[in-house]
Structure formats: structure tokens, C-alpha cells
Specification:
25% of the residues lie in helices and 34% in strands. It contains nine helices and 21 strands. The structure holds adenosine-5'-triphosphate.
């Protein structure tokens, strides 16, 4: 039996808006789960239903096999960190962190021990007397995390906790939260719209769109085996390139060019999509510039260079392939001239084919 079981969870708000559809997920004790998806996809609503802050319209939520739909947040033993931190402005860092324990009637000596230990983990020892307004965004964030982990609850919920931090602080806090998770082993559900946070922090990622789960999997699986164009385009930065290809007489063409997909696109796919359009997907980082003869077991495509962006460790090359824009991520030493015509290859193993209508992955 899993620690948390969500079965057929739906949320219909009082105004009739159906925000979450048939959400099914089993979470094991100690897992770090990330809900990721664009704004409005239902991540926070789902998290709030798990927290007990929002009622579940339909479906069942079990903790340790027991139904908790009707139980409030306290009875569910959850701690939540919000995007806004929700610290008490008039209280010191120490009091913000100890408040929950004081309410529970925990002994003052025990509270002091816990606050000092938690502050040490989070690098807040020197700030315990300060008020939230006297702290930086990153420090406030740490207090919010500290206030949640000090309670040693079983379930730790975080809703976009890093969104108010600058890019550098986000990277630091990302690894701090991962570290804290490793130390506490608390089952964690973390909501973000940032795929990098999802990829770097999660044991498993739940990708959502329009209130529906698109795919659940380990970061590696979502990156290499996306089930549809949405997941393929959402996970990875820059996103996967998509080019429409026609299938005629068993061969694939992009614009006026026939593309040799070799053994990759099986005859079965060609037969199934004869006379129709498929979408060829490849990631910017898997393209290799062709200088001499074309490499084996690869698709070779010609394109025009529209713009290059040197980023240091790589160059993003913005290209036009028969009217479709794509991006290649290449070694900066190979940066091509603007407006030049180049060829690049994508190894068959890094090519994806999607159904143009359903957007589902049909061949990988
Ligand atoms: P974001 O990243 O922007 O916070 P999200 O994925 O967390 O987005 P939710 O906050 O869960 O999205 O909202 C999902 C959908 O439900 C949105 O379309 C939102 O407008 C709608 N919604 C949220 N709260 C309510 C409410 N109280 N009444 C009606 N609709 C709501």
C-alpha cells in the first residue's frame, strides 16, 4: 500500500469551473514529487486539496490507507510552504519558527533545541532576533521552510516556494531544499511551473495541462520518453523542435525535400500515416553539424541560419527549415555565419515521431 493514494480526484469550483479532472496518483513514503505545468493547469488546486485547504469535489484521498477527504489540514499532518512565505511580520525569526510548536503545547526547552537545530541547517542562526522585513528574500524563504520542517510532519507541501527569489538564489535554495529532503526523508510534494526545478529536484514528476495529468515519471523518462508533444515541449530547455513531415508512398518529406528516416520510422508507421502528416521532433542538443560526409544512422536536414546566440558553454542557432523555425544547441567553436546554409544531423535514436492530430508519440 502506498503512503498517499489519490483516486479519481476532481475539483469543480463553486462557479462551475472544472479545474482538476480525474487525478490518479500513488506516492510512496519519502518520495519527492513535483507537480509541473503552465499557469492555470491545476497544480495549486491539487496541492490545496491534498493539504485540506480546498474540498475534493469527487474522488478519494487516502493517507496510509485511511480516507482523509473530510479531515482538516491539522489532522492530515501536513506542513505547507507558500509562494508568499506567509510569515508573521511582527514576530522574530525565532518566534515565526517556534509558533506552531508553541500552539501544540511543546515544552519551551524542546522548542528552543529544535529552533536552534533547524536554524543551523538553514543558516539562520545569526538572524533569529530579526523580523521578516529585516531579511532578504532568500532568508525569508528559509524561515518559511524552517517553520514547516520544524514540525516534523509526514507530508511537506510547497507551492512555488522559490518564485520570489532571483535566479542565483533559486539555484542555491533548490539544492538546499533537496538536501533538507534527503536529511528529513519527509514525503514532499512541490509545485512549480519551472521545468528545471522539476528536473533537478524530483524523484518523480507529474506533468499537468488544463487540469489533466499528461504524464508521471522520473525526470529521465520524461526527457527521453515523453508520451506526447506537450510533455516533449515542456521538459527540456530550449524546448524540443517540431517539424511537420508528409508521408507519401512510404517515404517522409519536409517541404520539397524527401527525408530518409532509414530503419527508424518503421514501415508500420509509414503505412499507418500514408497520405497524412506526422510531426518529427528532436531536441536542440541532439543536433550535430555536418561538415564532411553525413554521419551514419542519422537524419540529415538542410536549413538557413537566422540568428546565433553565444551563451558561453554552447551557441543557440536559430534556423529556418522549409519555413519552420527551430533551434540547435551546438559547440560555440562551430558557430555558423548568420544567413548561411548549413546541414545538421540527428541520430535516429534521438528522433521522435508524433501524430499530428492527437499529438501522441507514435515512435521513438
Ligand atoms: P499558477 O501556476 O498560475 O498558480 P496553477 O496550475 O497552480 O497555476 P490553479 O491555481 O490550480 O493553477 O488554478 C487552476 C484553474 O482553476 C485556473 O484556471 C484558475 O483560474 C481556476 N481557479 C482557481 N481558483 C479558483 C476559484 N476559487 N474559483 C474558480 N476557479 C478557480
Amino acid at each position: 500500500m502506498s503512503y498517499l493514494t489519490l483516486t479519481g480526484i476532481n475539483k469543480i469550483y463553486p462557479n462551475g469551473f472544472h479545474a482538476v479532472h480525474n487525478f490518479n496518483l500513488e506516492i510512496e513514503k519519502g518520495e519527492f514529487i513535483v507537480f509541473v505545468g503552465p499557469s492555470g493547469c491545476g497544480k495549486s488546486t491539487t496541492l490545496r486539496m491534498i493539504a485540506g485547504l480546498e474540498s475534493i469535489s469527487k474522488g478519494e484521498f487516502l493517507i496510509n490507507g485511511k480516507r482523509v477527504n473530510e479531515k482538516g489540514p491539522r489532522e492530515r499532518e501536513v506542513a505547507m510552504v507558500f509562494q508568499s512565505y506567509a510569515l508573521y511580520p511582527h514576530m522574530s525569526v525565532y518566534d515565526n519558527m517556534s509558533f506552531g510548536l508553541t500552539l501544540q503545547g511543546v515544552d519551551e526547552d524542546v522548542i528552543e533545541e529544535k529552533v536552534l537545530a533547524t536554524a543551523k541547517v538553514l543558516g539562520l542562526t545569526d538572524y533569529l532576533d530579526r523580523k521578516p522585513r529585516e531579511l532578504s528574500g532568500g532568508q525569508r524563504q528559509r524561515v518559511a521552510v524552517g517553520r514547516a520542517i520544524i514540525r516534523k510532519v509526514g507530508i511537506f507541501l510547497m507551492d512555488e516556494p522559490l518564485s520570489n527569489l532571483d535566479a542565483k538564489q533559486r539555484v542555491t535554495m533548490r539544492s538546499e531544499i533537496t538536501q533538507i529532503h534527503r536529511e528529513t526523508g519527509a514525503t514532499t510534494i512541490y509545485v512549480t511551473h519551472d521545468q528545471t526545478e522539476a528536473m533537478t529536484m524530483a524523484d518523480r514528476i507529474v506533468v499537468m495541462k488544463d487540469g489533466y495529468i499528461q504524464q508521471v515519471g522520473k525526470p529521465y523518462d520524461l526527457y527521453f520518453n515523453p508520451v506526447n508533444m506537450f510533455v516533449a515541449g515542456f521538459i527540456g530547455e530550449p524546448p524540443m523542435n517540431f517539424i511537420r513531415a508528409g508521408v507519401k508512398n512510404g517515404s517522409f518529406s519536409i517541404g520539397s525535400n524527401t527525408v530518409n528516416l532509414g530503419d527508424f520510422a518503421s514501415k508500420k508507421v509509414a503505412d499507418r500515416f500514408e497520405g497524412r502528416t506526422v510531426v518529427l521532433g528532436f531536441r536542440p542538443e541532439h543536433a550535430v553539424l555536418v561538415k564532411g560526409s553525413a554521419p551514419a544512422d542519422s537524419v540529415v536536414l538542410k536549413c538557413k541560419v537566422e540568428l546565433t546566440e553565444l551563451l558561453g558553454d554552447n551557441t543557440n542557432v536559430y534556423i529556418d527549415i522549409e519555413g519552420t523555425n527551430s533551434i540547435l544547441k551546438i559547440d560555440p567553436h562551430d558557430t555558423p555565419e548568420m544567413d548561411s546554409e548549413i546541414s545538421f544531423a540527428i541520430p535516429y535514436k534521438y528522433i521522435y515521431l508524433f501524430d499530428n492530430e492527437t499529438e501522441e508519440c507514435i515512435e521513438k
